[in-house]
Amino acid sequence: MFSRYLRVAPPCDPRDFKFKSHQRICRRHILTAATIAQPRRDLKAFFSPRSVALVGASEKSAWSHGVAAKFRAYGYAGKVFAVNRGGVDAHGFPGFKSCKDIPEPVDFAYLFVPAEATLEALTDAADAGIKHVNILTSGFAETGESGALLQQQLLDLANARGITLQGPNSLGFANIAARLVATSIPTRLPLIDGTIGLVSQSGAVVAEISKVMHQQGVGLSLVAATGNEAQIALTDVMDYLVDDPGTRVITVFSESIRDPQAFRDVALRALAARKPIVILKVGKSEISAQVAQAHTGSLVGDDRVFDAVCTQYGIVRVDSIEELVATSDLLSRVPPLKKSGVGVVSISGGGCGMFADRAAECGVSITPFSDATRAALKQVLPDFASDLNPLDITGAVFRAPQLWETTLPVVARDENVGLVVVLNQLPGTPDELRGLRENVLAMGRGLALCETPGVVVSMTAQPMTETLREVATEAGLSGVCAGIPLTVRAIAGHVQWSECLARFEAGERRARPASETQAATGQRPRSEREVLEFLRDQRVPVIPAHVARSAQEAVSFARSAGGKVAMKVLSADIAHKTEVGGVKLGVIGDDAVAQAYTDIDTAVRKNCPNAKIDGVIVSPMRSGGIELFVGTARDPHWGPVIAVGLGGVWVEVLADTAVRALPVTPGDVKDMLGSLRAAKILQGFRGTPAADLDTLAQTIARIGDAALALGPQLASLEINPLLVSGDKVEALDGLCVWEDASQ
Amino acid sequence: MFSRYLRVAPPCDPRDFKFKSHQRICRRHILTAATIAQPRRDLKAFFSPRSVALVGASEKSAWSHGVAAKFRAYGYAGKVFAVNRGGVDAHGFPGFKSCKDIPEPVDFAYLFVPAEATLEALTDAADAGIKHVNILTSGFAETGESGALLQQQLLDLANARGITLQGPNSLGFANIAARLVATSIPTRLPLIDGTIGLVSQSGAVVAEISKVMHQQGVGLSLVAATGNEAQIALTDVMDYLVDDPGTRVITVFSESIRDPQAFRDVALRALAARKPIVILKVGKSEISAQVAQAHTGSLVGDDRVFDAVCTQYGIVRVDSIEELVATSDLLSRVPPLKKSGVGVVSISGGGCGMFADRAAECGVSITPFSDATRAALKQVLPDFASDLNPLDITGAVFRAPQLWETTLPVVARDENVGLVVVLNQLPGTPDELRGLRENVLAMGRGLALCETPGVVVSMTAQPMTETLREVATEAGLSGVCAGIPLTVRAIAGHVQWSECLARFEAGERRARPASETQAATGQRPRSEREVLEFLRDQRVPVIPAHVARSAQEAVSFARSAGGKVAMKVLSADIAHKTEVGGVKLGVIGDDAVAQAYTDIDTAVRKNCPNAKIDGVIVSPMRSGGIELFVGTARDPHWGPVIAVGLGGVWVEVLADTAVRALPVTPGDVKDMLGSLRAAKILQGFRGTPAADLDTLAQTIARIGDAALALGPQLASLEINPLLVSGDKVEALDGLCVWEDASQ
Q: Which of A282, A353, A390 sits opposite B350 (nearest CB)?
């Protein structure tokens, strides 16, 4: 079994890795695990058919030949039958007119009859008692309305007859580990067994991904193309892979996530199982979202929200097929990182520079070595070598390959290093091997001495060749290389996943949140005052407000507030208070307050003679501090979300906001605040004290919970501004907008 | 000859391309071309040695075997002699004790004797009349001070004896087109002839780059590794490549640019020759800059300034070896683009989505098709296909490959499309070819019908294989593929270069600027007032200011200014005017102005009894408008630079500034302003009118020229703020800082 990351056996042995992680989860999280949702569908039997009927098989059709060839190519371990109108043998498989005629039990029907004959064929399979069906035929929902109708009939039939259905327009699946397949996915031969489970909505793309994997020497446990997803969806296959003991990484290509809740559920299950999910999802750009919508006909949602969900649920999102493969491979080889720092060792100064540049761009931390590390390196390196990280141990290794053995363990012991990267040219041809052989072997010996996980990275992406495979085996390493740019991004993904996993295992987001409907309080605050009072009940600090019913009461409230006050008429009948003279700001002193009360009362009575006046609200005027904008909204696909930004001009001009799906944890909010371009302001600015991030994060998380508690009819809850000054956080204004304004 | 981009013969024929471009340059720019600098060094003879002496050749050394093997591998066309202490034959080459003993004229000595014997060997070569030498031996400047001393001796000797010297620590060069080489650069065989000239400071990296090129089927004209650059530098080789008729693209790997002016000169020469420069330069991150400095010992300069130089001089900067190869290849295949829009055609909706996402991220414009294009597409596409760009012509092409021929020319004719991209799976193996053959041939026929340049892009990066090479030849295409992410970045680089070239050919930056010393006026403004007056003389609008020598004069000036005024004491002896009561702001009305004059005079006389007071400056107070920060600085490596940002909090918190090397054109300034995150503010904001970008850009360019006119002792000139409101631009404050404050 081969892969692009060269791995030291002892620390990363797959069995160790799995054993440790499972044990740990069972011990620590046995109670909370119960709150994570169960899979919606059990696909264990579906992905293990011991016999398959090829419905539509015919010697005359090139298409049919292609399908049949796949069963031989994959070395299918079960029995195959041909079903066609003539009942004749095809491709060496015995022929029957109907599935019902097959004299043995059939686990799986693989249908590729013309679209118009599909319903009849599915009925025949159902009548034969076949419970698992894949429809390869296209021409259904992807072609428009009439195709969608036909697809609905297939689904209704499958549901009525208890059939588990993949497709239509699906290339099937290959359970590579078990050689149990029902597929026409073209995969390069020979098959490489591996621990990556791959699922894709697109058949063309899954073929291309598996081609890249083969080229790079990366193996698969299972590969599936879900097609139109009439019944089995991406998330169902992901759920299967979480439970599949042969799969360590879940690799996904998606055009649209049909069931956002199922997606979040499977993400939490994957975290509990310590299996990373790596996803390539198109639709980042507006154009691409249009294409996806045209292509699949399903809703897409705001891509920023999908990004947010990935961040919150520990899903590693990548940008290309090449990155999908490199990242999945790294994650399948290297256990969760205990520290986020990377120690890099190379014999090329240029390589060190390129790696450091990519690392800085991707947020991978190459921390300076500790004094102890540098002292230890000085003892083993040539005089003219530097002791920086990345470490250039220079061309001296060509004369003294043992430098790998003396330097790598030193780097691995550094207090900040969670991953050792050996960066080097790797031999692809026998000619290249001659000059590099001793070095590769010494790298292997050096990495074997490390107690921290280590990977070997080639300077550039290169395919797996026989030469490299052989020397890697001899060196006790496995793999070839993705090159610097892809590997650095893969490491960034690994760090992100490891950190999310650590937070999850420390208790964050363990419990599946209640649905909005369950959480709803039934309340419907409308006026600014009602909104602020509701927030206060939800433990969000709001600016104090007193309703004065006389000038004297106003004076007394203003005195207790101290300093300047804001005064606003309280009346459910008045929408625009300022316009009718119902607002006075910055009022100070007993006389001025009393006068303001009288002025407001007189003006409003004159301008709105019919309004019922309930008094005048007196609040302290705030100055200083940092103003934030906090607002919730409803994504048409992903549901309620929350946005945070710095108030005023920042939000207006820079659109400098961070978004997350609700509910959010205080940890999520800290991530959001840290991701703002103007985050520096929160560290204190022009005399304003630094914001207390813990208090602020907790408050914003509560605002999110408050929005959920207002139920599914809430369109948005907006706090603008939320004022923060040191550990004092206060909502100054609040607004609710309701989906159905009449309710 | 092969490459990764499949190219249509008629519009992009290399000969056409070169012929047209040369003709055009000669016709249009014959006068201004003379202002561009000439190469510093003529390397034509250096890169064409008809005979080479291998000094240090020995059968006993594995190292020597490696060197000698390269001459055979490259199929060296000249004579080779072995020189060693014993004067014995080596590797089949006749042996001599001294270069002087060789009975024929020798063009080139390739030295790889031990470091301590190098000076003697160089002397021997010089005595033999050899004029071109490459020193492979390492252990010179790269190892520290004593090595640097030895290197200086080599250089002195070479200069004294008229020797052109590459190295030390240089792997030499291979003139692949002419098979005239003197090298130990390991290049994979068989050699692929091409039009890319590759030069690198690092030998390890150049080997890796050429490995990737070979793997992807990309050919080279020349490859050189300049090593320690005692004499021949990167820019010298680049200069050679500008004039080399066999080279179309200049591809560079650099750790540091030793001569910034030579770099800018060769960049302009390359623009005049219509040859793109593609560069991978390490040192983006702080860590990487440290590594480069440790590695090469040479100054690095601010990476942002290098980025700016690339933007200004049309140099395409890339981030990885993979991108260097893909971008160079695309630029060698596709002539300057006449429009920046890209039309994409694919049979994979997923592929369209991935391409569109990458394009949006890299700023590649995929503009919607025009109505005419969409109408024409409707006539040839299946009903269920969309007419969006990227265009998914669906799997229907498997039944009807002629769809390529009907759709591609339609897309190519679209009014916004400057480049047609065919995105598809490409066959790497005979098995894959079976399913794709008809499609590849039809793509070739379709692209041949297009009048706009077209490239074929594979979904993922894949190496060149025999299968792909053969079918591409049959289809009338050449090449394999770099995959979506690299190709999109390559297209972005091509668009950037094409636009810079168009501006250059329209007359921008045609003349080489005068040096700072030549430009210097000899003036040394120091006080705010002197600086503003100097700027006014340089045609930069500045706020009016009058020196009042009495309260009455102050009143009269204030009246003529109208509205509020600012009043400041004028005295060369007072640095901090506010602290001594020398400033009054927002003064309005005759009495107040007179009083302010008296107050300033009294306070300053009291606080600074010895200061000579020259009067009080009266200026109008400005309000409204947008405040910009404009400042020049001196990069230790690249020389004078200019930074522009929005004033105050934007610069302070966001560090939202743009930087360019001086001099700047108004076009440069517009790029700078457009690149600010807060650029939107310049379009008008909260009642402030939109800035007139032409006037603003011209003013800022003049500020840059003013800084240059102050000569090389100016450390910085700062205008803060430069106020802009509509077409009114005015410097409100100015400050000069001088390198040598005593002058």
A: A282
Chain A and chain B share a number of CB contacts under 8 A equal to 250
pLDDT at position B291: 64
B412 and B473 part of one domain: yes
Average pLDDT in the B7-31 region?
34
From the number of C-beta atoms within 10 Å of its C-beta (0-12, 13-18, 19+), residue A382 rates as middle
Closest residue to A653, CB basis, from B353, B366, B685: B685
Residues from chain A contacting residue B143 (CB–CB below 8 Å): 384
Tell me the shortest Cα–Cα distance from A210 to chain B, in angstroms: 11
CA distances to A292, B356, B357, B392 from B349, in Å: 7, 11, 12, 6
Contact present, A93 and A158 (Cβ < 8 Å): no
Span of A43-47, A267-271, A667-671, B608-612 with lowest mean pLDDT: B608-612
Domain assignment of residue B267, yes or no: no
What is the identity of the amino acid at B165? L
CA A431 to CA B408: how far, in whole Å?
43
pLDDT at B299 over 60: no
Q: How confident is the model at residue B23 (pLDDT cuts 50, 70, 90)?
A: very low
Q: Around Cβ A419, how many Cβ atoms within 10 Å? A: 24
Pairwise CA distance, residues B638 & A111, whole Å: 68
Phi first, then psi: give them for residue B531, nearest 5 degrees.
Answer: -65, -45
Give the domain-ending residue among A466, A495, A524: A495
Is residue A169 located within the same domain as residue A288? yes
Residues 6+ apart with CB under 8 A from A27: none
Question: What single DSSP character describes residue A98?
Answer: S
What is the pLDDT at residue B688?
81
Q: Do A319 and B347 touch (CB under 8 A)?
A: no
Which residues on adjacent β-strands are paired with residue A48? Answer: none
Is residue A17 included in any domain, yes or no? Answer: no
Range of the domain at B686: 626-738
Q: The CATH number of the domain where B104 resides is what?
A: 3.40.50.720
Instruction: State the CATH number of the domain containing residue A592.
Output: 3.30.1490.20
CB contact under 8 Å between B351 and A205, yes or no, is yes
Structure tokens at A670: 């800290």
B215 to A462: CB separation less than 8 angstroms, yes or no: yes
Average pLDDT taken over every residue of chain A: 89
List chain B residues with CB under 8 Å of A392: 291, 294-295
Asked if B353 and A294 come within 8 Å (Cβ–Cβ), the reply is no
- B-chain residues near A291 (CB < 8 A): 349, 352-353, 356, 386, 388, 390, 392
A360 with B323: Cβ contact below 8 A = no
Domain for residue B558, yes or no? yes
Across B17-31, B200-214, B265-279, B439-453, least confident range: B17-31
For the whole model, what pTM was predicted?
Answer: 0.91
More confident residue, A646 or B565: B565
| Co-location of B435 and B398 in the same domain | yes
Interface test with A, best of B291, B325, B651 (most A CBs within 10 A): B291
Kindly state whether residues A574 and A631 are assigned to the same domain. no
pLDDT at A468: 92
Residues of chain A contacting B392 with CB distance shorter than 8 Å: 291, 294-295
**Of the listed ranges A170-174, A460-464, A475-479, B555-559, the one predicted with least confidence:** A475-479
Which of A112, A291, A367, A652 should be substituted to probe chain B, the one whose Cβ sees the most B Cβ atoms within 10 Å?
A291
The pLDDT confidence band at residue A476, using thresholds 50, 70 and 90, is confident
CA A362 to chain B, closest CA, distance in angstroms equals 11
Q: Which of A140, A208, A384, A432 to mutate to test the interface with B (most CBs of B within 10 A)?
A: A208
Cβ within 8 Å of residue A440, ≥6 positions away? A426, A427, A471, A472, A475, A477
Q: How confident is the model at residue A447 (pLDDT cuts 50, 70, 90)?
A: very high
The string of pLDDT tens digits covering residues B659-707 is 999 999 999 999 999 999 888 889 887 778 899 999 999 999 999 999 9
